[in-house]
Design brief:
38% helix, 7 helices, 2 domains, two-stranded antiparallel ribbon, two-stranded parallel sheet, mainly alpha, 181 residues
Length: 181
């Protein structure tokens, strides 16, 4: 379960007091948006009650008719099980959550996947020692070549089992959120 105190990452400090000092210093309201693992309206309601201004939701919108990712990408999300999802290292030095596929297995076994063309898209990425090109891996998968690319998902992806329309997903979240506020 999300907790605003954990989100602020200000261990041992009064989070609201700390935030207020920054707001006063810059004479601006600082909104707090929470992201990651938000898979229900109930969770949104809990976060708002804790002080969140809003949330960012991504994974549930992959399996929508309106998403422009290839159907193969969407199908991987719809068909994945919790045990199919794991943290992987990215060339940016940050972990990402991905569905284990041939690409992820290959990065585990060989360590590096040769890049054809560096796009210089991220500062921390160095083509000489990066394990793979994250841009190329994401482009491959979203175009449907899911065995040669990364399928990044949220922690709750295994709970998605069917295609929906965006307005259906939003309506479900809103109704459940309103029931719990």
């Amino acid at each position: 379960m999300h907790n605003i105190s954990k989100i602020y990452k200000l261990k041992g400090k009064d989070e609201k007091k700390e935030l207020k000092s920054w707001e006063e210093k810059y004479k601006k309201t600082i909104p707090i948006f929470v992201a990651g693992g938000i898979d229900s309206g109930k969770k949104i309601a809990e976060l708002i009650k804790q002080g969140a201004t809003g949330v960012q939701i991504a994974t549930p919108f992959i399996a929508t008719y309106e998403c422009d990712a290839a159907q193969e990408f969407k199908d991987m999300v719809i068909q994945c099980q919790a045990e199919d999802i794991e943290l992987v290292s990215s060339p940016a030095g940050m972990p990402g959550r991905a569905i284990v596929n041939d690409f992820v297995k290959k990065t585990r076994e060989t360590g590096n996947i040769c890049m054809k063309n560096c796009l210089h898209c991220m500062i921390p990425c160095n083509p000489e020692n990066t394990p793979y090109c994250i841009s190329e891996a994401l482009i491959q998968s979203v175009k449907g070549n899911v065995d040669n690319g990364l399928v990044f998902v949220g922690s709750q992806a295994a709970r998605i089992h069917e295609m929906k329309h965006v307005d259906e997903v939003i309506q479900e979240y809103i109704e459940e959120m309103e029931e719990n506020l």
